[in-house]
Every structure is written in structure tokens, then in C-alpha cells.
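Quick one:
INPUT:
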């Protein structure tokens, strides 16, 4: 039975570290500098994306190709779900094509878990509702580890729309398991009570509504997109950038070694100013994309071939 990747919550540090180690070994192949051993030659990966995606969908396709597999893609707008077919029936029919793995993105929190109970092939969660985005959490960890040399003991801020962010949930689980100290920073309307409960009982998690007071000792800062498609727009003030945007002036007050990250897509001038996003010394935003291919290579190899 294949090992699925449905979430990072519950994975132990050795499991996370093994995936990160393997992903780091794949970085030269992800960049196209060397050819990876085609360990998945003859395998078929189905990408089922029922929500819009650029980086995640294309990086899974690139990862499959680098490992010798072929990828087939189905997007929600072109699927039979528009004719009334259920999410599960669509997946079962795709599995019947003989695929070795299903990579799924859906607005249904827990959707990939549901599929894993009904199909025999590997299931990889590419983002489900407000639940998790495990490969994004892994690539964020890889980026931090590569830039800082280690994750343990690092002070990492995740800033913005925490309430709607599956990225924040995956990164929070992985980073704290690997020994980082995580600060969740955002307006009260976008920091739900559930996170306050986590912070209360987890010594490595803190919550703040004040970005200014947290800049001085950060090692990494992850800026999140305000997810208007999940009704976040009504929960923010018109001066969001002034309070929570990473402006040039705020970035100048970060420690010199602190890196800037964003899962994308970036709303320039809202979450991050142009000068900060394009700062080649600090910004890891494009490196995150490259690391995403490497992480997804490691995940495909692990789930399909063990």
C-alpha cells in the first residue's frame, strides 16, 4: 500500500527531515543542472486541480518529468464535476485509468483524506480548503534550512491572513516539530481562536497583532496573501498595508540575515513592496519555487516507489 501525503500534522521530525534531505539532494536536478535518475519511468501521475494554481500544478508536472514519470492534468472547469459528477467519482474514474498517484487540490477541507480511503494509488494533497498544503510547508522549511543552515531555534514570523491559510497550518506544524519558534502575526479578524489555543499550550508558538514589535529578532518572515476568494476581504481594514505590509522601511529594520518569503501569488504593494520582493539579498520567493520542484520530486518518489 502506498504512503500518502495528506498533511504534515502528525509527522515526526525524522520523517520531515528525511523528506527535506531527499529534496535538498534533488535541487540540482530541479534547476536543470543535472539529470535525475528516472526512478519513476513508466509511472503515471494525475494532477486533479479543482482550484486555480500556477506554481503548485506546474511544479508537480516538472517534478514528475524530472523523475521520468508522465503527468496528466484535469482542471475543475474542464471536468465532469460541472455535469454533476461527484469529487470522489471523478477521482475513482481517474484511478481506473491506471495512474500511480493522484495529486489533488480542492476547496474541500479533508478532500484528499476522503480519496485516500477509497483509492489504491498514492494520494498527495496539493492544498485542501483551509486545512493544509503539505508540500508548501515542506518547501518553506527547505528554504529556511538552506538559507540559515538550520531550522532549530530559528525565529519565524508568519504574517497576514492566518485564518484562511492552509500554508500557515502546514508550515506551523513542520517548523515547530523541527524546533523553530513561530509567531503568527495578523489582525484579530484573521487570527482565529483555534490558533490562540495552540499558542496557549505550545511553547514554540506565539500570537501577535503588532508586526512592528516583532521585526528586530526574526530569522525569516513569511508574508501571506489576503485570500479574498475565501471572504477574507471583508475582514481587513483599508489600511492593511500600513499595518501588516512588509514595506521597504520595515524591511530595513529586519536583522541583516533575515530572509523574506511568500508562497505566491504575491500582491505587490499590499503584502510586500516591490523593492522587498525583488531584493536579491533577502528575498527567497523565486528560490521557493525551485525548492518546490525538489520537494515534490522527493514526495513523488516516496509515495509512489517508497
Amino acid at each position: 500500500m502506498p504512503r500518502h501525503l495528506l498533511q504534515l500534522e502528525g509527522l515526526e521530525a525524522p520523517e520531515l527531515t528525511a523528506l527535506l534531505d531527499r529534496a535538498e539532494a534533488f535541487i540540482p536536478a530541479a534547476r536543470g543542472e543535472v539529470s535525475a535518475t528516472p526512478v519513476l519511468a513508466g509511472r503515471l501521475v494525475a494532477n486533479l486541480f479543482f482550484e486555480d494554481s500556477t506554481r503548485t500544478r506546474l511544479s508537480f508536472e516538472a517534478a514528475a518529468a524530472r523523475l521520468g514519470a508522465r503527468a496528466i492534468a484535469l482542471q475543475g472547469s474542464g471536468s465532469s464535476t460541472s455535469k454533476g459528477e461527484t469529487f470522489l467519482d471523478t477521482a475513482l474514474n481517474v484511478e481506473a485509468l491506471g495512474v500511480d498517484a493522484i495529486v489533488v487540490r480542492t476547496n474541500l477541507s479533508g478532500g484528499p483524506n476522503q480519496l485516500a480511503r477509497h483509492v489504491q494509488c498514492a494520494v498527495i494533497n496539493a492544498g485542501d480548503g483551509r486545512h493544509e498544503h503539505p508540500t508548501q510547508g515542506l518547501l518553506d522549511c527547505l528554504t529556511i534550512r538552506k538559507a540559515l543552515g538550520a531550522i532549530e531555534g530559528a525565529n519565524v514570523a508568519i504574517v497576514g491572513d492566518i485564518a484562511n491559510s492552509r500554508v500557515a497550518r502546514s508550515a506551523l506544524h513542520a517548523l515547530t516539530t523541527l524546533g523553530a519558534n513561530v509567531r503568527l502575526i495578523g489582525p484579530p479578524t484573521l487570527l482565529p481562536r483555534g490558533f490562540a489555543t495552540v499558542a496557549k499550550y505550545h511553547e514554540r508558538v506565539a500570537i501577535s497583532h503588532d508586526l512592528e514589535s516583532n521585526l528586530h529578532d526574526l530569522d525569516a518572515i513569511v508574508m501571506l496573501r489576503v485570500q479574498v476568494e475565501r471572504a477574507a476581504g471583508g475582514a481587513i481594514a483599508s489600511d492593511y498595508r500600513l499595518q501588516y505590509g512588509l514595506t521597504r522601511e520595515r524591511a530595513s529594520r529586519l536583522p541583516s540575515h533575515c530572509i523574506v518569503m511568500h508562497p505566491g501569488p504575491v500582491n505587490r504593494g499590499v503584502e510586500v513592496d516591490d523593492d522587498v520582493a525583488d531584493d536579491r539579498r533577502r528575498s527567497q520567493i523565486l528560490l521557493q519555487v525551485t525548492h518546490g520542484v525538489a520537494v515534490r520530486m522527493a514526495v513523488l518518489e516516496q509515495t509512489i516507489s517508497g
